[in-house]
Specification:
Blueprint (H helix, E strand, L loop, with lengths): L5 E2 L1 H5 L8 E3 L2 E7 L3 H12 L4 H4 L2 E5 L2 E6 L1 E2 L4 E4 H16 L11 E8 L6 H8 L2 E2 L7 E3 L7 E3 L1 E2 L10 E7 L2 H13 L3 E4 L6 E5 L5 E5 L6
Parallel strand pairs: 8-11, 8-12, 13-16
Antiparallel strand pairs: 1-7, 2-3, 3-5, 4-5, 6-7, 8-13, 9-10, 10-11, 14-15, 15-16
């Protein structure tokens, strides 16, 4: 296999050496709790010395309480995991272990906003201008992303049944590890939510709050 061969989320998660990584909608993620900001910065410095890490361009969030790393390959016709990402992920895990740090797989998640419209081509220009976002390389007609990878992605979907007057609607989604999803669903229901639909589970469950605002709890399982 070459270092850029595509992998499914399940193939990535089931590979040796990445047991603490979880693939979400925005790539493979791992979180290392730390005691101080200095410890977080030292961990990132150690990552910077990994051979080939520049080629994979990991996204790293550094806080006093921990470090989150995301790996994702995006080209003009593909967005997902590759064997190159797997190699770097293994090295990142090994570096952290050598420094005595353990990952917490339950702490990773990503957030997504999903505007719906009868014709998404009519609304995406507005959101691109409003947000200062740019089209995602592999799906420029459907998705907008923050060029600095700070804000949540916007994934647009066509509505089969528009609201009265031909209007659209927005709902949100949170991507969680597959092994955390059912507990998150149960917690949301216990907090006053209701199930709207679950026929697409485990890819996603759609819930609503008491006012009818909808939200998805999503995983990569079943999307290969």
């Amino acid at each position: 296999m070459t270092t850029t061969e595509p992998m499914t989320p399940r193939e990535f998660e089931e590979a040796d050496g990445v047991e603490d990584w979880r693939v979400l909608g925005e790539g493979a993620c791992i979180y290392f709790p730390t005691a101080t900001f200095a410890e977080s910065a030292g961990l990132v410095q150690a990552f910077a010395e990994i051979a080939g890490v520049e080629d994979r361009a990991p996204q790293i969030d550094v806080r006093a309480g921990g470090v989150t790393i995301k790996l994702l390959t995006i080209t003009n016709d593909y967005a997902g995991m590759t064997t190159g990402d797997l190699d770097v992920a293994r090295q990142i895990s090994a570096v952290a272990r050598n420094l005595g740090l353990d990952a917490d797989p339950s702490a990773v998640q990503s957030f997504l906003v999903i505007p719906g419209a009868p014709d998404i081509s009519e609304v995406t220009p507005f959101w691109r201008a409003f947000l200062g976002y740019e089209p995602r390389a592999d799906s420029p007609d459907e998705d907008l992303v923050d060029p600095r990878d700070r804000g949540p992605s916007f994934w647009f979907e066509s509505m089969e049944e528009p609201r009265p007057g031909g209007l659209g609607a927005i709902h949100v989604a949170v991507w969680v590890p597959y092994d955390e999803a059912e507990a998150r669903v149960a917690a949301a229901l216990a907090a006053g939510g209701r199930m709207v639909r679950d026929e697409f589970a485990p890819a996603w469950w759609t819930l609503a709050d008491a006012a009818g605002n909808e939200a998805d709890i999503a995983t990569t399982r079943g999307r290969d």
